[in-house]
């Protein structure tokens, strides 16, 4: 579609909103400028057509946007960062939950929060987009409710408690997101995303991020899930070991594009904040 948006379509364009003292306040149209991130403005109807074309291996009605071979390749695993972590495909990624292989893509801007997922075997696709900050939880909850209703999860078998307790100490520590600029000025404008893992007397881990905390338990070697037993939006939590058997990385299984690394004490914000205070 031509830019700016033609007048005949402008009235259908949704604005983003934030909540202020007088209610929801409309915001300006968002432009995504930072590579490699990208965005597109389209209709929910066209997103549905796109999903149908994917489910039919590149065909929609009598039209074809992709050859069948290309469509299968697009939906196939291309890179898996670690065992137990979902694979990246081409433009989409795996998001398996409840024993189902699903592919799709979630996305966030400042005001909009969207999710698209497809269950290929069942020929099902679902797309949702929300135009205010609270939409992040809504899109996650909708997928969870859909799967709980139509494809209830089976309880995952737990490994022996003795083995879990032996592994727990090696998982404690601070983990930091690897998605940040390290050598440009942007490094100083964005706070580092760090969280801690601490053992509990119950043989579980307490994951803490700022003021939030969640207790997780092992459901497989180095694979954890909330003690509630419910798989979160981003799937299980996976700890990755290096060739020497040391835990060095952490992944949300269904977010293979968001790796975390385990960091030493002197690299934590707690340590650097204290150091800066002393120096001042």
UniProtKB/TrEMBL annotation:
Give the matching Gene3D superfamilies.
Answer: DD-peptidase/beta-lactamase superfamily (3.40.710.10)
One short Pfam name that applies is Beta-lactamase
* Signal peptide residue numbers: none
Against InterPro entries, the record matches this protein to: AmpC-like (IPR050491), Beta-lactam-related (IPR001466), Beta-lactam/transpept-like (IPR012338)
Task: Cite the Beta-lactamase-related domain residue spans from the record.
Answer: 21-144
Q: Which PANTHER family match?
A: BETA-LACTAMASE-RELATED DOMAIN-CONTAINING PROTEIN, D-ALANYL-D-ALANINE-CARBOXYPEPTIDASE/ENDOPEPTIDASE AMPH
Please state what the protein is called. Beta-lactamase-related domain-containing protein
Species per Swiss-Prot/TrEMBL record: marine sediment metagenome
């Amino acid at each position: 579609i031509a830019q700016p948006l033609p007048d005949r379509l402008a009235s259908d364009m949704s604005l983003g909103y934030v909540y202020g003292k007088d209610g929801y306040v409309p915001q300006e149209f968002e432009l995504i400028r930072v590579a490699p991130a990208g965005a597109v403005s389209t209709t929910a109807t066209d997103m549905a057509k796109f999903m149908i074309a994917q489910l039919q291996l590149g065909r929609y009605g009598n039209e074809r946007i992709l050859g069948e071979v290309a469509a299968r390749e697009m939906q196939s695993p291309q890179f898996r960062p670690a065992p137990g972590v979902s694979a990246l495909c081409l433009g989409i990624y795996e998001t398996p939950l409840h024993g189902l292989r699903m592919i799709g893509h979630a996305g966030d801007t400042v005001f909009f929060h969207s999710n698209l997922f497809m269950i290929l075997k069942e020929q099902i696709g679902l797309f949702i987009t929300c135009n205010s900050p609270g939409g992040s939880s809504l899109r996650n909850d909708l997928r969870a409710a859909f799967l709980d209703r139509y494809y209830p999860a089976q309880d995952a078998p737990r490994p022996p408690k003795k083995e879990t307790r032996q592994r727990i100490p090696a998982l404690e520590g601070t983990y930091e997101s690897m998605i940040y600029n390290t050598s440009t000025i942007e490094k100083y404008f964005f706070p580092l995303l760090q969280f801690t893992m601490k053992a509990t007397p119950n043989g579980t881990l307490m994951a803490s991020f700022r003021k939030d905390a969640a207790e997780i338990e092992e459901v497989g070697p180095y694979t954890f899930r909330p003690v509630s037993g419910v798989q979160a939006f981003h799937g299980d939590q996976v700890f990755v070991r290096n060739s020497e058997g040391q835990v060095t990385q952490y992944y949300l299984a269904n977010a293979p594009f968001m790796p975390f690394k385990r960091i030493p004490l002197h690299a934590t914000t707690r340590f650097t904040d204290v150091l800066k205070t002393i120096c001042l």
